[in-house]
Amino acid sequence: MARSGVHSIAVIAGDGIGREVMPAAIEVVEAVAGPFGFKVELTEYPWSCQTYTTTGHMMPVDAVDRLADHDAILLGAVGDPTVPDHVSLWGLLIPIRRAFDQYVNLRPAVLFPGVPSPLRDTGAGIDILIVRENTEGEYSELGGRAYAGTAHEFATQEAIFSRRGIERVVEYAATLAKSRSGRLTSATKSNGIIHTMTMWDEVAAEVVARHDGLEYRSMHVDALAARFISQPDEIDVVVGSNLFGDILSDVGAAIVGSLGMAPSANLNPERDQPSMFEPVHGSAPDIAGAGVANPIAQIWSAAMMLDHLGHPDAAEAILIAIRRVLAETTVRTPDLGGTARTAEVTAAILDAVISIDESETVS
Question: What are the structural domains of the chain?
Answer without folding.
Answer: 1-103+264-363 (3.40.718.10), 117-256 (3.40.718.10)
